[in-house]
Amino acid sequence: FYNLVKKCSWPPLLSNSILLAGTSGEFVYGDVVHYECSNGLVPIAGDTMRMCNASAQWEGHDLVCSHGLLL
Description:
This protein is about 0% helix and about 35% strand. The protein is mainly β. The strands form three sheets. It has a three-stranded antiparallel β-sheet, with no helix packed on it. A two-stranded antiparallel ribbon has the order 1-3. A two-stranded antiparallel sheet has the order 5-7.
């Protein structure tokens, strides 16, 4: 029996956000990473969670962080 493990590349590093990922440095099918906005910014678009899918791609959209709106 031969098991082919789908490996994703390193998750994208995004401006104004912090990547919360495991320390193994290797990401395989089903692995999940999380993003948080940095420096008091708030998410305005994209996903805070991304998963390595069966096609070895990161599902979801890049997180976009910005200053909150003043009302």
